[in-house]
Backbone:
């Protein structure tokens, strides 16, 4: 073989090597690498094989795509690991400690080779997260520098957060020193009975170690001792209301049951102090002070399960209140008497004779509180008593339907007796007929029905007959050839047409307009004072049309007579309408008397007249009870007015 031939063969072999297809990864190779966890090694080896290869051919592009996909898998896996670590190591504030972020940033260079864009985004996110953590660290360091020695709870929290965010042991050591100092301060304060200082130190320790039961026990003890000192100091200074308020505030806290167990003095001692002071107030005839003190003692007893036996001071107080009740009954002050009985009931529901006395006092008070109202027949300027009586009756029924428990209605047939009573009283004879408190009087100013009748004519075009005529369409069809007719359906031969004529009929148009006007006034029977006045008008209109009968050919119109309600029916409906309007206005004046009684009671109390304050408050209480309203606040105020009465 010649030298030239050998050179050609060598060149051909060399060219064949340069143009061979880049290697590709089989699915089996990828699966094996995934199962063995050697994807990163496979990526490195495969990238080395492709180095220097011509990748602009279809085979080269396929190989490059495989390498890119392999890098994406490796990048996704690394990003998932980084995010999982960030989530696990994040703090309650939503930040991630610096050491954790730095450790994740150290993993990123590999990703830059696998997926540059994914690396860029994740690196930016981590650096932004690191910036937020650093900003928080700086802010907390500044805040820590500003704290005073007394702000130990905040100091501990900041040191704990800084230790986590920075990973710096200095903060952990400083926190441990603070905890040790607080522990010593708490122990020393408890030993020296400096319970305020002990509470401050223990509160900070509790915030730092909420699960430490021993700290909780010591804190409860400090709270108990601190409360006792303030409570008994207030009593010693004569500030019983302050001591009571301190106790009630403490009783609302979740720690109260545990504090109660650690009080050095029993709850019986607390109750006894208030009871003793109440006994002194009763002896000095200051029943209002005794009432308040015994009520406070009762509240403390209920909160602490103290001895429930009724002390003699309470018995003495109830006897004094009962004596005042008897005096009030003799003086005809049923409302004040009811107030005294409610005081007794609050302390001893089994007090001898209480139930019967309560029933009697409540009935008497309710009788006084419920204003009696009578409605006279409305006078009629036209002398028609029917409508005046109807309006009065319907107004009365309206009041009964709307406010049955606010007033007591007196039948109208008693009204003349009421008027006679006033005449007798005016003549100088004392009147004993306890009748109406309020009188409702009124006048029918106008009651009429105006009727008008108009006659007119109306022209209408109507069908009077029908005629049969040839159908032009059939005539056109008949003119067609036989072959054309065979292809076209035959129209009907004839049509029916209406014959129309103008008809004029006579009309009768009837119209009725009913009007009723009335005025009213609400009068205080005893004084004749007018409390409210008003007037109203009710109106209704009715129309109908009648016509004469007519027949013309096939047209028929029957005779129709215009039909309207009778005048009496129209006025009857208007009576109901105006009665409701007047009734609503009277309801607005008379409803909710308990509100007015309570307002009057306050005015009397402000003026120093506690007897009348109690009377009016009792009226409000009795009415609210009758109406099944919440009367607890009214009762408390009634009791307070009663015990203040001389």
Residues:
């Amino acid at each position: 073989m010649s030298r030239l031939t050998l050179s050609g063969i060598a060149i051909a072999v060399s060219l064949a090597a340069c143009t061979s297809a880049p290697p590709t990864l089989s699915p089996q190779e990828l699966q094996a690498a995934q199962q063995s966890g050697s994807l990163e090694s496979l990526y490195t080896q495969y990238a080395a094989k492709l180095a220097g290869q011509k990748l602009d051919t279809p085979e080269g592009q396929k190989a490059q795509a495989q390498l890119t996909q392999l890098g994406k898998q490796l990048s996704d896996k690394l990003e998932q690991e980084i995010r999982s670590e960030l989530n696990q190591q994040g703090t309650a504030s939503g930040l991630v400690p610096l050491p954790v972020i730095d450790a994740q940033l150290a993993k990123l260079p590999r990703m830059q080779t696998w997926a540059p864009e994914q690396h860029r985004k994740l690196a930016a996110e981590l650096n932004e997260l690191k910036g937020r953590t650093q900003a928080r660290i700086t802010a907390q360091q500044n805040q820590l520098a500003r704290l005073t020695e007394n702000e130990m709870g905040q100091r501990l929290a900041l040191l704990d957060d800084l230790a986590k965010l920075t990973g710096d042991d200095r903060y952990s050591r400083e926190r441990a020193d603070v905890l040790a100092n607080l522990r010593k301060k708490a122990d020393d304060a408890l030993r020296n009975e400096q319970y305020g200082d002990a509470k401050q130190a223990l509160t900070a320790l509790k915030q730092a170690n909420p699960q430490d039961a021993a700290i909780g026990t010591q804190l409860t003890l400090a709270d108990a001792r601190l409360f006792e000192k303030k409570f008994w100091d207030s009593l010693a200074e004569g500030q019983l209301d302050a001591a009571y308020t301190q106790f009630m505030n403490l009783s609302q806290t979740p720690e109260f049951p545990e504090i109660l167990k650690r009080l050095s003095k029993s709850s019986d001692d607390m109750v006894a102090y208030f009871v003793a002071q109440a006994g002194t107030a009763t002896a000095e005839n200051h029943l209002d002070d005794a009432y308040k003190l015994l009520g406070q003692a009762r509240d403390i007893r209920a909160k602490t399960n103290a001895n429930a036996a009724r002390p003699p001071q309470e018995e003495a107080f109830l006897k004094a209140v009962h004596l005042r009740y008897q005096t009030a009954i003799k003086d005809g002050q049923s409302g004040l008497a009811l107030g005294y009985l409610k005081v007794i009931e609050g302390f001893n529901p089994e007090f001898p004779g209480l139930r019967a006395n309560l029933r009697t006092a409540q009935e008497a008070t309710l009788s006084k509180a419920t204003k009696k109202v009578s409605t006279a027949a409305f006078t009629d300027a036209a002398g028609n008593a029917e409508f005046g009586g109807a309006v009065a009756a319907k107004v009365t029924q309206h009041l009964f339907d709307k406010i049955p428990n606010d007033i007591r209605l007196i039948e109208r047939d008693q009204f003349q007796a009421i008027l006679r009573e006033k005449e007798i009283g005016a003549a100088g004879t004392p009147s004993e007929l306890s009748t109406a408190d309020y009188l409702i009087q009124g006048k029918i100013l106008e009651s009429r029905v105006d009727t008008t009748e108009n006659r007119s004519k109306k022209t209408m075009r109507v069908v009077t007959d029908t005629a049969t005529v040839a159908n032009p369409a059939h005539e056109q069809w008949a003119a067609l050839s036989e072959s054309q007719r065979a292809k076209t359906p035959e129209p009907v031969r004839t049509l029916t047409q209406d014959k129309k004529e103008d008809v004029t009929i006579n009309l009768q148009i009837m119209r009725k307009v009913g009007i009723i006007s009335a005025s009213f006034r609400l009068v205080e029977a005893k004084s004749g004072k007018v409390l409210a006045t008003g007037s109203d008008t009710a109106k209704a209109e009715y129309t109908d049309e009648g016509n004469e009968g007519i027949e013309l050919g096939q047209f028929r119109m029957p005779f129709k007579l215009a039909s309207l309600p009778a005048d009496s029916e129209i006025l009857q409906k208007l009576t109901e309408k105006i009665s409701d309007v007047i009734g609503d206005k009277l309801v607005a004046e008379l409803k909710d008397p308990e509100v007015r009684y309570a307002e009057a009671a306050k005015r009397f109390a402000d003026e120093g007249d506690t007897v009348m304050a109690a009377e009016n408050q009792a009226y409000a209480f009795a009415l609210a009870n009758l109406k099944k309203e919440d009367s607890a606040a009214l009762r408390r105020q009634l009791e307070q007015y009663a015990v203040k009465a001389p």
Q: What stands out?
A: Confidence is low (pLDDT under 50) at residues 1-18, 424-434. The longest strand covers residues 438-470. The two ends are 149 Å apart (CA to CA).
